Input
Amino acid sequence: MKIKDLKDNFDKQIEINGFVDNVRNLQWVQFLIIKDITGSVQVTIEKSDESNSKLVEIVNNLSIGSTVKIKGIVKENSKVKLNGMEIIPEDIIVTSISLNELPINIKDKDAQEIDTRLDYRFLDLRNDFNKNIFIIQSDIVKYFREYLYSLDFLEIHTPKLIGTASESGSEVFEVKYFDRLAYLAQSPQFYKQMAMSSGFEKIFEVGPVFRAENSNTNRHTTEFTGFDVEFSYINSYEDVMDLEENMIKYSLNKINEKHSKILSDMYGSTISLPTKFPRIKLNDLYDELEKRYGYKVDDEEKNDLTREAEKLSYKYSMEEYNSEFLFVTDFPSEKRAFYHMRKDGIPQGYDLIFRGVEITTGAQREHRFDILKEQAKEKGLDKDVEFYLQFFKYGCPPHGGFGIGIDRFTMLLLNLATIKESMFIFRGPNRLNP
Output
């Protein structure tokens, strides 16, 4: 039985499994706090009861972090501060012993630096603050999936060892692959478009993404979990924005229903969704940032969003639209991938900004072989992507898609200081362990 279910089983015999979170060994009584993923409960042992002598001896030798199986009767007790109940045990079975004093303070995550905590991530994750990050993250993905399944999307799984870089020739990890080089996939981009050419029409994938970026910011990592979507027979990139917006709204509304108290109490986060995510052209955004906040950049920097512009875009979006989300469109072609469709020379794509950080690049793809081939050649990639171009020789429907970094999205939703906290195991330029 899980600890969360004990309240429905007062005066019944139960059995629980969990970690020993605390031991108080007093003159006449012993108290254990037992913890599983759903909560904590007090176990009370009266030393004066001779029938408890075996249990008393077990507790005398019990260390914090050990795991136990406890059988007993759960009792309602208003004097017990922890959930108003306790377990009166009949048997305690020690299933594992914690051999030494824990090397980090798992009850106070701020008692040590993040990199020290990451060295002992298997212990660090026992902290409730960290545990709930992944409970919420799991539900984010669950509800993304749920929304797409309701629209008859297929979930696919694409290879992560590939023969050519999926975005450009830079920022890729090379891997020795028998007698030649392979690369770790920067995204499933080529293969999810292949699925469109295959007639799958609507697909998504959740999987690892690799970026050889020697960056040590709070939002970058060399390996993260991507949630990628692609679908066919669209009319414009507006359809792509609409789908992403609706998927995010569906998931966050569900998250709010289930976790609003934890979001607020533990992470200081509240979810407020606008009726519609606002949309603005890149040049218009820069004009607004200059007019409102005096933020000016050189013309050559206006071909993409600077980090400061991302931050200010959040301020602007909240003031103008009361929205934590902002779609930015009309980026110049030099900053967009060759496979983005162009209209009058302008890539038909967007970035989605959430709380001042980019979480998505999405677009309508160029599906016409001759134009796509020319755009690849323009970027100097025509030879590198010959296998990819084959997908478009024999007919391919109009399509588009996007990708969301789950770890970054979680970091922003929960107001975490760094992406290191929102990843089960972090990978960066200086970390390959644990």
Q: What stands out?
A: The chain has two domains: 3-96, 122-422.
